[in-house]
Design a protein that fits this description.
Oligomer: homodimer
Strand content of chain A: 15-25%
Largest sheet of chain A: 8 strands, parallel, barrel
Radius of gyration of chain A: 28 Å
Catalytic activity (chains A, B): (6S)-5-methyl-5,6,7,8-tetrahydrofolate + NADP(+) = (6R)-5,10-methylene-5,6,7,8-tetrahydrofolate + NADPH + H(+)
Largest interface: A-B, 101 and 102 residues
Strand order of the largest sheet of chain A: 1-2-3-4-5-6-7-8
Number of helices of chain A: 21
Number of strands of chain A: 18
Keywords (chains A, B): Allosteric enzyme, FAD, Flavoprotein, NADP, Oxidoreductase, Phosphoprotein
Distance between the termini of chain A: 78 Å
GO molecular function (chains A, B): FAD binding; methylenetetrahydrofolate reductase (NADPH) activity
Shape of chain A: elongated
Helix content of chain A: 25-40%
Structural class of chain A: alpha/beta
Organism (chains A, B): Mionectes macconnelli (McConnell's flycatcher)
Subunit structure (chains A, B): Homodimer.
């Protein structure tokens, strides 16, 4: 009877336990422990496995297609869009390959670099398109090697458009997408997941629909893992195509490409490029409203929603691929109406994870970069292994220097004029700097009526969690304790808590209270006297730009400040205050005064000199209250300090 | 001003931060993260460093000398004594070298194996004595290699006693301890800490006191790290010797050897061997009471205490070395009266750590071996690395087989006759087994008037912590839920809590409730139905001797059931329920029924068949309540199970 119940222990471990003699000392040599916490299966599976798992679970998904931007500013905006649309929970995004735009180069607008940024800095599973015609094998191999090096794991293998009017086969080159698929498999074995294109109406250049289906089958049999289709206008088109594919033995996933009509001109252009015909019933609706963008978009959304519903209801479709044209509104609207948009994104960890395969196991980071995760990823990109389970005694964390403040994915979203409005066209003294910090905290407009929505250390408005501390933060910033990072103490809130929760449900999350700020040496001297009273309770690190460092941390050990306890899992402690990393963060934190703020002003101008003075003379302080079950004592520490100063 | 305050950040990290350019991507290659939590510096320092640190901190210490036992039974007792006396907190113990007892062999009574057991199984810092006369270099090297392989790190280098009456120099052999010191340093570099003997009255064979001091200096200059002296009867003797040593340039620690007189005969024998003269004033006291052991011991304790006080008060002595003669009472009494005995041993981790250098970083173990730590160490002795920070996905933990139930350090302390009295001369059915379990829990005598002080799975009486659960445990054992391991849930008690505390002070410890038991398949079937109601809250593993395994653990991941949060440190999680290890523990847990219990009875006897029946048909069950902040639900689970059965 009992044997008939759930047997969820894997066969391999049962057999190991049956044949006990095989577990002797001999085999202990290959006792290589993987300390990977499988907190989030998404981080550990390849794309085709994620698809399979989602399909098996009956869990519908979506993906988003983007093209590389033309300008550096557009790149900054696209990355913000990745962050926002990534929150909706796409299974992957893909980035098209623009042969004219030097797609494999290191330019910030290249396909390669945009895909790299999506994977590494935005944490998105990403497919990089790649075309093969008019390129040498060596070029292609070079691109693939570079993609692999950057952590890209998925390629959409395409032929690409011919250069001239007529298509001519090249003798030694790649002539068809199938050649590229074969090349990837022969040169990179099973490393990449490969996607190929399917044409529900047949490729415009194919001899026939049937011939095109046979080409598709060749691509799949050459090693493609799944198919994304060209856009189409009727669900029947796709469903027939899918049945025809299955009939000739194509069994891999086939994902319909959805194109929400967003405007008259974009539709016309796309139709021209793809050589598709727009059905008469759609033309009939659009023509009369062609100058009314909003009306067309509404119609497009309506049309897409009903077509997607038909596809999903067919039971044959498990995922939907959206041609976004780099726009947010229409696609997001369609997804929300379909119920596919993730309205309550659960964070697997308190910080945004990177999708680079070598960072799969990473689950601990210093708290200092909490608001600058992309900078953290950049400064640790050369690491070969990443801390997990523990940060450890990082006697040599070897952070890369941050000199490249111009890098588009590290840039402020706001242009210089806006920053000046927020942070002051002209500063009159340290107090005007206190005011900027205070306005950022309160959300109130500054004396010129502008809201301060970002700071050099934080490109976004105050986090919801920090809002819990708003009143106290306002008070201390007014008096020159210039806070740049903080968290409240949490003594076991459910992991599903909308503000401080993270990780799987059913768990409990904890935090030690943390406060990080710049302050004058006068404040710091008083603070040090006050801290003597809190010697065992509060750990502190205090450093100035020259690296003079004062701390009571034992043996330079890290202090865990965020951790979670989950059912059936080991403890996860994703955030630490690491004394050694703090000295690297210090360089960046001080440099931001100059790079982001002082440089807004003319050299030698009074405003610039005020920022320079703060940079040269203030201290960067962090405080941790170790007694997380008690009321946060850090506000008392600060109050005591002000009292001593009076 | 601030620069004059505490600068506790090490110079190296300051300079690293100053010369920021050296921290670029080049150096990240040697980014080898040490995940060692320095929870307990004692585990990470070599003996001479511990001495130095204790001396610098003004922290007095003691050490204990033992000789190897003559019989296997005596070895079992000596290991229990190591465990008990180890709790008093010796800085180290040492084990003498008995040339006549095949000291380097694998016999359970050899010096080598006793030292090995002290280090690896009792977790004691240990010095192994080694003599060199009448041995070849190869023999000596062989012994040293073996010692190193076993994890011994300290050698007391001695000449040894001559074989005949007269001492004769061997041409190619070792003639003096200094030869052995040189040999160790030349063959093993700085691996071992080396101790040598000092003679406060001069070596009996030395030409003179001064000549002997010069020999001692030679030994130190050849590489010895510290000196332990021969016993003496007056503190002045030692203090003069120490000054004389310092006068000729001996600066290493010199530890006085203390011999509490414990009996007339042992004193006479020792004096004869060491060729020392007992001062007249001592003889005068002892002779009249020579047949009264208790009186002599009391006097010996008195004498030792006052001499030790004089030594400590001199300010020249930081540690005391006790010649225990393998006895507990007198030495313990002296140490308690001196205030050196650790009355409140703080546990660095919830389980006893091993002192083998390769286990230094180990800080996670499966909970199953909580009462059988020596068996756990034995079964993992071939591992090359030990889990720390996380247990990890131990898909191949490769535990060694436990076939060697006869090994003296795994043996029950109780002989067969005692076990029969406790567990029943004759069993009449499964209920008589339930009774044995119940008596062990309650501490009440069984129906024949014998207390059950140990069980096959637990060689000691119920742990204080388990006592917290006594009432519930009694109730369930009576009804056939035969518990072998359990812990209550703890939601943040101070780390100094006398019952459940561990680790440094100022921290908080946590536990998930745990219950492990054997039960019939009838009970297990009902239990499984009940567990459906607790699906997300309770993790379970249920297995029978054949390895049929039922669990709801996700992906065979370990579940942390003990963890601690400390000031300025990362999270420590020393105990997990690991599904894979459970299948290895299962073999041992079931085998103990047969090896320790069934085999007490004649083959084919009804008693033996009852145990065999349980072994063949019962299931081993473990339950974890993940909701540690709520009231433990496992008792409700068991109650529901019994209710369902009724």
């Amino acid at each position: 009877m009992v044997n008939e119940t759930q047997q969820s222990c894997s066969a391999s471990s049962s057999s190991r336990s049956d044949g006990g003699s095989s577990s002797g000392s001999e085999s202990s040599k290959d006792n290589s422990r993987c300390s990977t916490p499988v907190l989030d299966a998404d981080r550990h599976e390849r794309l085709r496995e994620k698809m399979r798992r989602r399909q098996e679970a009956g869990d519908k998904w979506f993906s988003l297609e983007f093209f590389p931007p033309r300008t550096a500013n557009a790149a900054v905006n696209l990355i913000s869009r990745f962050d926002r649309m990534g929150a909706g929970g796409p299974l992957f995004i893909d980035v098209t390959w623009h042969p004219a735009g030097d797609p494999g180069s290191d330019k910030e607008t290249s396909s390669m670099i945009i895909a790299n940024t999506a994977v590494n800095y935005c944490g998105l599973e990403t497919i990089l398109h790649m075309t093969c015609c008019n390129q040498t094998k060596d070029d292609i191999t070079g691109h693939l090697q570079k993609a692999k090096r950057l952590g890209l794991k998925n390629i959409m293998a395409l032929r690409g458009d011919p250069v001239g009017e007529e298509w001519e086969e090249e003798v030694d080159g790649f002539n068809y997408a199938v050649d590229l698929v074969k090349h990837i498999r022969s040169e990179f074995d099973d490393y990449f997941d490969i996607c190929v294109a399917g044409y529900p109406k047949g490729h415009p250049e194919a001899e026939s629909y049937e011939a095109d289906l046979r080409h598709l089958k060749e691509k799949v049999f050459a090693g493609a893992d799944f198919i994304i289709t060209q856009l189409f206008f009727r669900s029947e088109t796709f469903l027939k195509f899918m049945k025809d594919c299955q009939a000739i033995g194509i069994t891999c996933p086939i994902i319909p490409g959805i194109f929400p009509i967003q405007g008259y001109h974009s539709l016309r252009q796309l139709v021209k490029l793809s050589k598709l015909e727009v059905p008469q019933e759609i033309k009939d609706v659009i023509e009369p409203i062609k100058d009314n963008d909003a009306a067309i978009r509404n119609y497009g959304v309506e049309l897409a929603v009903s077509m997607c519903r038909e596809l999903l209801d067919s039971g044959m479709v498990h995922g939907l691929h959206f041609y976004t044209l780099n726009r947010e509104v229409a696609t997001t609207e369609v997804l929300k109406r379909l119920g596919l948009w993730n309205e309550d994104p659960r964070r697997p960890l308190p910080w945004a994870v990177s999708a680079h395969p070598k960072r799969r196991v990473e689950d601990v980071r210093p708290i200092f970069w909490a608001s600058r995760p992309k900078s953290y990823i950049y400064r640790t990109q050369e690491w070969d292994d990443f801390p997990n389970g523990r940060w450890g005694n990082s006697s040599s964390p070897a952070f890369g220097e941050l000199r490249d403040y111009y890098l588009f994915y590290l840039k402020s979203k706001s242009p210089r004029e806006e920053l000046l409005k927020m942070w002051g066209e002209e500063l009159t003294g340290e107090e005007s700097v206190f005011e900027v910090f205070t306005c950022y905290i309160t959300g109130e407009p500054n004396r010129n009526g502008h809201k301060v929505t970002c700071m050099p250390w934080n490109d976004d408005p105050l986090a919801t969690e920090t809002n819990l501390l708003k009143d106290q933060l306002e008070k201390v910033n007014r008096r020159g304790i210039l806070t740049i990072n903080s968290q409240p103490n949490i003594n076991g809130k459910p992991s599903t808590d909308p503000i401080v929760g993270w990780g799987p449900s059913g768990g409990y999350v904890f935090q030690k209270a943390y406060l990080e700020f710049f302050a004058s040496s006068e404040i710091v001297m008083a603070l040090l006297k006050v801290l003597k009273k809190y010697e065992l309770r509060v750990n502190y690190h205090i450093v100035n730009v020259k690296g003079q460092n004062i701390t009571n941390a034992p043996d330079l050990q890290p202090n865990a400040v965020t951790w979670g306890i989950f059912p059936g899992r080991e403890i996860i402690q994703p955030t630490v205050v690491d004394p050694v990393s703090f000295l690297y963060w210090k360089d960046e934190a001080f440099a931001l005064w100059i790079e982001q703020w002082a440089k807004l002003y003319e050299e030698e101008s009074p405003s610039r000199m005020i920022i320079q003075y703060i940079h040269d003379n203030y201290y960067l302080v962090n405080l941790v209250d170790n007694d997380f079950p008690l009321e946060n004592c850090l506000w008392q520490v600060v109050d005591d300090t002000f009292e001593l100063l009076n």
